[in-house]
């Protein structure tokens, strides 16, 4: 089958950073689905895995952690899907990714594609949706629907990116007062369209800006970029007994004792945890994607795709990586076989 992979970890402007390859078509066993890939999306994790280092692969390493496609075959233990089903998922970072003609994925981390979306629109959703949902409702333990949420506030740092675009929608649907950060007119407008009630600039001190719009503190913070850079500001504005969730790794350990007097919580969200460790609740990702598919079909959540390249090949995936690495993406970029 056709695939896009790498043998060496190179800068994205190198023509061999991602290459077109032919590999053997895999076979579905156990709980696996064999999916005919229709569209993929590129995320920062793709660029981080591909980032230059000295390792050399004997077999092509295939990236791609957002997929929408059609089930081609199922393993003998599969109970949730059947051939012909249209699905979407993020997959597992410990297995080959989805930048290929066919892809194996465990059914327990797969959802049925929203019926009102194209494959390209659906491919923009899984990784960011799972990250945002797990952060808000699992890690920060925000009630999915509660009258109490109307008196609670959430600050989303980097609200116009892939995860932020979903998090603002979910936080607003949960009933929270949502403050997003953005630094450009176009990103501010995007975040407001997706659920942010207020916008402040993440390049400026947080506390004075929050006070200006009527918030001395916030109950929840979801930090999607530069955790260590924003640490002092988050410590200052988090409410006593508030909760902070981060997804961006840090160069140095965080001084968690800074949160002691406020009895505040800091927690990490890593979307691949359940699949990587085969946790007992791994099937929760199937449930999350199923729930979100229903929300999309009713118009409560919208796809965040902003650009689509076609077809799925090394040249277009290199272009997509370059755009993500530039660091100024709004929403998501998708590569699809149209």
TrEMBL record:
SMART domains: PKS_ER. Its main location: cytoplasm. The keyword RNA-binding applies. It is found in: Cytoplasm. GO terms for molecular function: oxidoreductase activity; RNA binding; zinc ion binding. The keyword DNA damage does not apply. Pfam families: ADH_N (PF08240), ADH_zinc_N (PF00107). Belongs to the zinc-containing alcohol dehydrogenase family. Quinone oxidoreductase subfamily. PANTHER family: QUINONE OXIDOREDUCTASE. This is Zinc-type alcohol dehydrogenase-like protein. It comes from Priestia koreensis.
